[in-house]
Design goal:
This protein has 254 residues and is α/β, with parallel strands linked by helices. The chain has 2 domains: 3-67, no CATH class; 78-253, 3-Layer(aba) Sandwich (Uracil-DNA Glycosylase, subunit E), CATH 3.40.470. It has 11 helices and 8 strands. The strands form 2 sheets. The protein has a 6-stranded mixed β-sheet with strand order 3-5-4-6-8-7, with helices on both faces. It has a two-stranded antiparallel ribbon with strand order 1-2. A hairpin with a 2-residue loop joins strand 7 (217-219) and strand 8. Helix 4 (78-85) runs antiparallel to helix 7. The chain is globular, with a radius of gyration of 20 Å. It binds iron/sulfur cluster. Iron/sulfur cluster (SF4) binds at residues 85, 88-91, 93-94, 100, 157-159, 171, 174-175. Residues 85, 88-91, 93-94, 100, 157-159, 171, 174-175 line the site of iron/sulfur cluster (SF4).
């Protein structure tokens, strides 16, 4: 094989790798430093993690990585993403759904709310957050001086988990690629993650809401605020004040 051909194949392979990272929701890549090679593997991994999350100057955006190549991955429109989902059977949740609940709202929204998955009413109407918890979210949006049509509302999984259970890891892991594509299409300034499932998908973490609240996180250029799911409020009115505190911070940011 000629050197030129080998180089071309290597570049193609790298491109596929970065595309895959992007679909998985990773938006930064660490620039490893030469001296780290001398260190033990355990210390090196710890340091690399630190570099990714703490040292802004040593991370670069995935978009920039893709920009190295001639043809960066195509940014899909919401319609194209819905088309790509089709009559999806990629995970076991398809067995129990009546409708796929894709998401709705302003395709250019500055604010996106992400929940975990559709409930019974959402499954019937093919619309996100229209049950009791949804009505509460609508009240919150109104209290912010906005309309539902000003923001975008969607979930990590697009099909209703049976008995309104939380999505399982394999289900969220299969479906979240569409959420990431939606976020890329909308390109919001602020993302509000409602509950642990949404926060764990968007922020690639295993932390719970309680540990993630109280500060802004990053998803690409968007700021991410984590708060309680409105359904948790229905079960525990004590969450009302902390949720409202979080929403006020988001309002200030907008
Ligand atoms: Fe497909 Fe997502 Fe529904 Fe699973 S939850 S079947 S991945 S659309």
């Amino acid at each position: 094989m000629s050197l030129e051909l080998e180089l071309k194949e290597l570049l193609e392979e790298l491109k596929r790798y970065f595309e895959c990272q992007k679909i998985l929701g990773l938006d930064t890549i660490a620039l490893a430093r030469e001296k780290k090679k001398e260190e033990s593997s355990k210390t090196y991994k710890k340091e690399l993690k630190h570099q990714v999350f703490k040292e802004k100057k040593t991370i670069i955006n995935i978009e920039e990585q893709l920009g190295i190549f001639d043809k960066p991955s195509k940014k899909l429109t919401l319609e194209e993403i819905r088309e790509e989902i089709g009559d999806c059977t990629r995970c076991k949740l398809h067995q129990w759904r009546t409708n796929i609940v894709f998401g709705e709202g302003n395709p250019k929204a500055r604010l996106v709310f992400v929940g975990e998955g559709p409930g019974e009413e959402e499954d019937k109407q093919a619309r996100p957050f229209v049950g009791r918890a949804g009505q509460l979210l609508t009240k919150i949006i109104t209290a912010m001086g906005l309309r539902r049509s000003d923001v975008y509302i969607c979930n990590v999984v697009k099909c209703r988990p049976p008995g309104n259970r939380s999505p399982e890891l394999d289900e969220a892991g299969t479906c979240e690629q569409f959420l990431f594509k939606q976020l890329r299409a909308i390109n919001p300034d602020v993302i509000v993650c409602l509950g642990s499932v949404a926060a764990q998908s968007v922020l690639r973490t295993k932390e719970k809401v309680g540990n993630l609240r109280g500060k802004f996180h990053s998803y690409g250029r968007a700021k991410v605020r984590v708060t309680y799911h409105p359904a948790a409020l229905l079960r525990n009115p004590g969450y009302k004040k902390p949720l409202w505190d979080d929403i006020q911070v988001v309002m200030k940011e907008l």
